[in-house]
Amino acid sequence: MSGINLHRRYGQVLLNNRGIAIREADTLGLGAGSHVLEIGPGTGILTQVLLERGLKVTAVEADHNMYDEIRWKFQKFVESGQLVPVKQDFLEFQAGEYDGIIGNIPYHITSQIVFRLPEFRFRRAVIMVQREFAERMVAAPGSRDYSRLSVSVALRFNARIEKIVARKYFRPVPKVDSAIVSLQPRETPVDMAAVEKVIQRAFSMRRKKLGNIFEGCPQEYAELRPDQISPEAFLDLASRLTGLSPRGHP
Ligand SMILES: C[S@@+](CC[C@H](N)C(=O)[O-])C[C@H]1O[C@@H](n2cnc3c(N)ncnc32)[C@H](O)[C@@H]1O
Fold first, then answer.
1. 91 touches ligand 1 (CB under 6 Å)
2. How far is the CA of 64 from the centre of ligand 1 (A)?
3. What positions does the entry give for S-adenosyl-L-methionine binding (predicted)?
4. Segment 172-221, tens digit of pLDDT
5. pLDDT of 109-141, one tens digit each?
6. How far is the CA of 63 from the centre of ligand 1 (A)?
7. Which of 22, 30, 76, 157 is 20 to 30 Å from 209 at the Cα level?
């Protein structure tokens, strides 16, 4: 591994197992010539596997040391145009269309990154996140982990935990395990911004009944709490509430 200094503020915990990087690339399932966006390449363990497969890689890295490292390490690929390193905060990176999105993403901004993904067009994303976060992403109604995140993810993606990755495969060794998650975009039939507002408000009062949270709440949902209804029911609820003000907020 490179002797480069690691920065906590960039969430720099580096994967040190090539087999796991290969597993992530396999899960992405794209062939030579496809264009992949990599979030946070770091010192390039995953970038290398992607480049070896003939994928075109745009790699967005916030830390200038890491950015310099991958430009130096993969100079040939940069010169040929197969690798386009971009030194930028991913949260400010312009959305666009890619065949796939991949990344062992910085854990301190995982939510923000996941909530930004729907701005991009892509066939499949494969991300490494903290295990607990992954479990909240795919949690089912009624479970302790079912949350705003689970509903938003389920309405936008077919999400799956592909593999739990033990903490020993990272340097420095973190306090938590990780998980590889795959995301395949779903068609969303309605304006998701309005749906998002309903989900957010509901889970900010997750112990209350929906009838006490939303004025004009349809009868069939009124006696249920937010964690008792499915993502599809949230879609239905939000569509039927559109135009109605949440209780106490005219
Ligand atoms: C968990 S490390 C993973 C590094 C490498 N992909 C690996 O697997 O070893 C996260 C990477 O994201 C970078 N990063 C942190 N915040 C970022 C941001 N806002 N935008 C883009 N990259 C960021 C870090 O500098 C670091 O390289």
1. yes
2. 11
3. 15, 40, 61, 89, 104
4. 999 999 999 999 999 876 778 889 999 999 999 999 999 999 999 999 99
5. 999 999 999 999 999 999 999 999 999 999 999
6. 8
7. 157
The ipTM, to two decimals, is 0.99
What is the residue extent of each domain of the chain? 8-185, 192-242
Amino acid (1-letter code) at residue 226: P
The mean per-residue pLDDT over the stretch 66-74 comes to 97
* CATH topology for the 192-242 domain: Helicase, Ruva Protein; domain 3 (1.10.8)
State whether the beta carbon of 45 lies less than 6 angstroms from ligand 1. Answer: yes
C-alpha of residue 157 to centroid of ligand 1, in Å: 23
List Cα–Cα distances, 7 to 42, 60, 63, 171, 201, in angstroms: 11, 17, 9, 12, 35
